[in-house]
Write a structure and sequence with these properties.
alpha+beta, two-stranded antiparallel sheet
Length: 246
């Protein structure tokens, strides 16, 4: 588990702000401990290892108020890839949308978060491929984006909605990259229309393949370390992928 470091950083106005980050020096400091941990893990029967992709385990780790600092680090590792400003504070929200009318489809979200800058982040983790992931993500995004406004509110009250989809299956055949980000762009000149729409698709099998082929160095990328933490245990196959970075 990466070590979390809390630091107060003072701006020119002497106003303190809290920055949450990983302490990278800790990885080199505890090399012997990592080796002992790795050996101990391989003495545990695979069936006893917790698969953090399972809905309950994922929510206990990333959706728990006690672990909010961990969630901040994890989200920032993902959002940094799209150039968004780091989150310093977040708030867990109700995870059900829809149902205004009887015929409406209600949707249970895995994790819904609001950042201090009023951006909304929906994290969905899927183990099995139901072959509807893109449409499902679009549906969740559209429902939540529209439900931000109450009667009489202005469109100015709408804020970006970021959908993060973490999948234990491959989705995009056009690329071998494990993390792909989509926004709205003009088709010829490629300039963005808005940052209100953003989709992240993270494919763990592609990550594992790249890691086993020595195409990734977990020590040089925070997001890779977090995703390996999620991906090394496969509860469906009772399988644990050997890792040398714990």
């Amino acid at each position: 588990m990466p070590q979390i470091c809390l630091r107060k950083v003072y701006s020119s106005s002497e106003t303190p702000s809290l920055h949450v980050q990983e302490e990278s020096r800790s990885y080199n400091k505890y090399q012997r401990r990592k080796e002992r941990t790795n050996k101990a893990l391989h003495r545990i029967p695979d069936i006893q290892l917790m698969d953090l992709k399972v809905d309950y385990a994922f929510k206990q780790l990333f959706g728990n108020e006690k672990n909010k600092d961990i969630t901040v680090v994890f989200l920032n590792a993902i959002l940094a890839k799209s150039g968004r400003s780091p989150i310093q504070q977040l708030y867990f929200q109700n995870i059900e949308i829809g149902g205004e009318y009887e015929e409406d489809k209600k949707s249970r979200l895995d994790l819904l978060i609001r950042a201090e800058n009023k951006e909304w982040v929906n994290i969905e983790i899927q183990i099995n491929n139901a072959y509807n992931m893109i449409k499902r993500s679009l549906y969740y995004w559209s429902r939540f984006f529209s439900e931000q406004l109450k009667e009489g509110q202005s469109y100015k009250e709408l804020y970006p909605v970021i959908s993060i989809n973490i999948m234990h299956f491959n989705l995009l055949n056009e690329t071998d990259a494990f993390h792909n980000i989509f926004r709205l762009y003009e088709m010829k000149q490629k300039y963005p229309l808005t940052d209100m729409v953003e989709f992240h698709f993270v494919e763990i099998p592609k990550l594992i393949t790249a890691w086993k082929n020595n195409q990734l160095d977990p020590w040089e990328d925070v997001l890779t370390r977090w995703l390996l933490l999620l991906g090394t245990v496969d509860r469906r196959k009772n399988h644990f992928s050997q890792c040398n970075w714990l």
